[in-house]
Amino acid sequence: MKNRELSFRQLEKQSRRLERRRRIRESISKNGGDILHSANFQNTRRNMQHGTVSVHSHSISVAECSLNIREKLQKMGIRSEERDIIRGALLHDYFLYDWHHHTHKKGWKNLHGFTHPETALNNARKEYHLSPREQDIIKKHMWPLTVVPPRCREAWIVTAADKYCSLLETVGPRLELFKGLGRHWTALPRRIRVTVKREPLKNSGQEANGRNTSAIN
User: Fold this and answer.
1) Are 94 and 128 in contact (CB under 8 A)?
2) Helices and strands in the chain, H and E counts
3) Ranges of each domain in the chain
4) Residues 118-170: tens digit of each pLDDT
5) 147 dihedral zone (left: phi>0; alpha: psi -120 to 50; beta)
6) Coil/strand/helix, residue 176
7) CB atoms within 10 A of CB 127
8) Phi, psi at 125, each rounded to 5°
């Protein structure tokens, strides 16, 4: 009975998780459909962001993660604009080039990490009418590299989601390599029993054979 109740709870939890994910994806499609189906956004599939994750997949993951954070904050009474979060998250890396092979001017200030927020913002402005919150999200999502911190809750949410997704995309595949590490050690028995055979006793006039078993830790 206990196992059955546990399975019911697991199924219920899984059902809620799937429903939340479906609701989030519907919201992203509703508020960011024009971005998702645009030619330039589709082309971001070709550019890798972290490891084998494309800019396209990364941007959608950040949007989903941002909405999860927003939902948790909303339960705490902290409100934010859903549409601005979605559109800002989808466009936060709208720099439209492969940064792994992109040439830039010399100097650490011209590195991709410092310059791409401004590039993404300029590209997004050419194609979309951006709200002040959406602009702040795109421009400040690399904080603290951008020095100036975000000015609105929506930008803070997307910044946190971007850091979290980037960490998973970068470190996650490497952690997979260590999944089986140590299994051959834990599979070894803790105590190994060794049988030692005694030599025959001659000084007592009787021969006695015996075995002694000792344990080695």
Assistant:
1) no
2) 8, 4
3) 2-176, 184-216
4) 889 999 999 999 999 999 999 998 888 777 889 999 999 999 999 999 888 88
5) left
6) helix
7) 15
8) -65, -30
Reading the block at residue 158, the tokens are 């997307």
Q: At what angle do helices 132-140 and 153-176 cross, to 10 degrees?
A: 40
- Token couple for 126: 């050419």
| Most confident stretch, 14-18, 37-41, 203-207 | 37-41
Which SS3 state, helix, strand or coil, does residue 124 take? helix
Cα–Cα distance between 130 and 41 in angstroms, integer? 16
Sign of the CA dihedral running 60, 62, 67, 68: positive
For 50, phi then psi, to 5°, come to -130, 120
pTM of the model: 0.70
Token pair for 173: 């595949």
Q: What class has domain 2-176? A: mainly alpha
Query: Cα separation of 184 and 77, whole Å?
Result: 50
The dihedral sign for the CA sequence 185, 188, 193, 197: negative
Report how far Cα 191 is from the mean position of its chain's Cα atoms: 41
Decide the pairing of beta strands 53-54 and 192-197.
unpaired
- Does 190 have pLDDT greater than 70? no
